[in-house]
Design a protein that fits this description.
It is a multi-pass membrane protein. Its main location: endoplasmic reticulum. The protein contains 4 helices and no strands. By secondary structure, it is mainly alpha-helical. α1 runs parallel beside α4. The radius of gyration is 51 Å and the shape is rod-shaped. It starts with a helix and ends with a helix.
Length: 210
Amino acid sequence: MTLYYSLCFGLLMSELALFCTIVCPMPFTLRKKMFHFLSENPVVAKIQYGLKITFIFVAVLFVDALQRMVRIAQEGATAKSKQEMADVRTETNYAARRFYAQRNLYLTGATLFLSLLLARVFYIILDFIHVQESYSALQQKTARQSGASGEAEELRKRVRELESELAKSAAKDRDFETLKKQAAQQNAEYNRLADVHNKAAGNVSDKKAD
């Protein structure tokens, strides 16, 4: 295997390892820290930029491997039609060339396909983490609002109790004022009757003296 195909194979193994890492079960906190690091770290951003350029070269290798496999297939079809492949060495050479062309095609194609799949899964999980964070923040906000609503309801209940007590106190004050007025009226009436009685008693005494 040539150097660039060896590098392509190493890149494919790295993609497989990274894919298994991001999809394996782990605590949400750890996953959130890992994805925030991968999406926000400037060093990782530079590595991603370099990988994008690398994948361009992998795509070129894929196109070259595809063309080579098509050319070898055409050569084999031509040789079969002319019956020129009776030699075992020629058949072996042809089979080896076809095998290498297919291997290179599958290697570069799998690398490109896994890169697209890895990018899509990464952003799906990242969006899920953002949605989960938004949902947690919304839950906390709702809990705070519920607590504030409960406090407001308690305050309204206390205000109603105070208003009821104030109304009762005002009713008692009105009853007390009514009693005071009645007592004052009765006292005035008693004084009037006493004066009348005293005048009557005084007149009787004067008549007896005469």
